[in-house]
Amino acid sequence: MSLKIIKIRKSDERFISNREWLHSRHSFSFAEHRDPKWDNFGKIKVINEDIISPNAGFNKHSHANMEIITVVTKGAITHRDSLNNLGKIHQNEVQVMSAGTGITHSEKNEESETCKLYQIWIFPQKENIKPRYDQISLNEKLCDNLIFDYKNGNNNKLFVNQNISLWRCRYKPIKEKKLPLRIDKYNWIQIIKGNLLLKSKDSNSKNISLFSGDGLGFEVINLKDIYIDTEKELDFLLFSMPSL
Question: Which residues have C-beta within 8 Å of that of residue 56, sequence separation ≥ 6?
Fold first, then answer.
């Protein structure tokens, strides 16, 4: 066996929250939506796909002891916080905020177009660290965009207080594309756009088809036998961690 399926979260099975200005789908338990089977996947606590109307957004609110990642896929979101950080995160940019001992921030779509983003919460490795904020731009080319890799230590452009790595992978239609070589044993794929066939050359492993909005948690047993096929341009997030 090359891979073991742990959890599949189909797009239309996610929790839904709707406000006048916000449409959100939650892969895991969030706010009033609770299901013990979907409280987390390892170190991942929240993956929210948010669509935010123009001139609207999240007013000031506080966090503590959580790693918060924002990946913008359309438009831009403006961040202001109690550390006096002011940042505008555009399409193809990523923000990471370590809440640590406590931070208050707002996130507003101050543009004239809809903003689409993924907000991700990661449990911290160490609690009560000093809060911090960073953001980077990603390569817009079709490739494996490494956002951060805990194995790189201080060489990462973004700091995340946890043993977890994250890629944003974008591929053209392709056959038998291998996953990044540095992935660990436990992984989560979150499809942003497109379709993906995760397959193994090992006949004892089941092939899995994923579509826009789907999520998959899986264990890698033999990486060299695992491949991806896609018939369309594909965009997904890949989280990887050594333990759950």
Answer: 21, 22, 108, 109
* Per-residue pLDDT tens over the stretch 105-128: 999 999 999 999 999 999 999 999
pTM of the complete model beyond 0.90:
yes
- Nearest-angstrom CA–CA distance, 104 and 199: 43
Select from 192, 185, 197, 45 the least CA-distant residue to 124: 45
How far is it, in rounded angstroms, from Cα 28 to Cα 48? 8
What's the rounded Cα separation, in Å, for the pair 131 and 63? 10
Q: Is 3-241 a domain of CATH 2.60.120.10?
A: yes
Output the pLDDT for position 188. 98
Q: Which residues partner with 36 through β-bridges?
A: none
**Domain assignments of the chain as residue spans, ordered by start:** 3-241
| Token pair 């997904």: residue | 236
